[in-house]
Amino acid sequence: MPDDALIHDPHGGMPRLLEIMRRLRDPDTGCPWDIAQDFATIAPYTIEEAYEVADAIEREAWDELKGELGDLLFQSVFHAQMAAERGLFTFDEVADTMSDKMVARHPHVFGDETRDKSPEQQTVDWEAIKAEERAAKGARGVLDDVATGLPALLRAHKLQKRAARVGFDWPQTTQVLDKIVEEAREVQEAHETLGPDQVEEEIGDLLFVMANLARHLGVEPESALRRANAKFIRRFGRIEALLAERGKTPDQSDLAEMDALWNVAKSEDKARARASQKVSQK
């Protein structure tokens, strides 16, 4: 029988988590669900957990963040355990690889380069080091290693950022705004004269340019859209609350009434924002 002392040690730290994962995957005594998984089936959970970390940070839910970070860490442990079983690499090798990368990318901290640089210059240096790493791995095209599994909006942002490094970019934000007007017009034309495939393509072009505008303005489009989603949920929830005060539900209302209540919710939102800004300025 295995020694369960480490498994039940509340202060067992990383060794405890690694042993729990090993036991879960034990082909004789482990969990059937965990045993049945592979890299492909776990990958969606990894993405989901990363977003839950981002969500907790965005909501400033610091009491939840510890657990969400633990969930994300467990995903790394899960993948590393499956890799170890196949003789690919171990968790310690994953940690060593990350440590090596961070040391190599921070010569101004761990090497002999000066720390007397602006954050902007450090970003330029970081990207130069990453470019050298990509070349060493045999990546030839500028866009070769932008991960295909990223959410489409985030990937669009990264593709455009990568292309901009080699000069493929509009020099002025106004040019991006002009392109948005052009793409919006093409969406309308496609809707009026073409089929659904063409409409989808034109909407994709419009979203791609919107991501480019966000980059030009220094905004992360994925983060901006998450905030917009949260705002929509908050305001629609207020519509539901106001309708409930009238003894109604949304399906018992109509667009005109809900639109008017949306404006109420919007005004309340803005009033709270102004009040919060005044407090922060004191």
Q: In words, what does this structure look like?
A:
It is a single chain. The protein has 282 residues and is mostly helical. The protein is 73% helix and 0% strand. It is globular, with a radius of gyration of 25 Å. The chain starts with 12 loop residues before the first helix and ends with a helix.
Short description:
The chain is an all-alpha fold. Helix content is 73%, strand content 0%. Helix 1 (13-24) packs across helix 4.
Please supply descriptive tags for the structure shown above.
Helix Hairpins, globular, single chain, mainly alpha, about 280 residues
How many distinct domains?
3
CATH superfamily of the largest domain: MazG-like
CATH architecture of the largest domain: Orthogonal Bundle
Quick one: biggest sheet? none
Kindly provide the name of the CATH class of the largest domain: Mainly Alpha
Protein name: Nucleoside triphosphate pyrophosphohydrolase
InterPro entries: MazG-like_dom, NTP-PPase_MazG-like_C, NTP-PPase_MazG-like_N, NTP_PyrPHydrolase_MazG
Enzyme class: hydrolase
GO molecular function, one term: nucleoside triphosphate diphosphatase activity
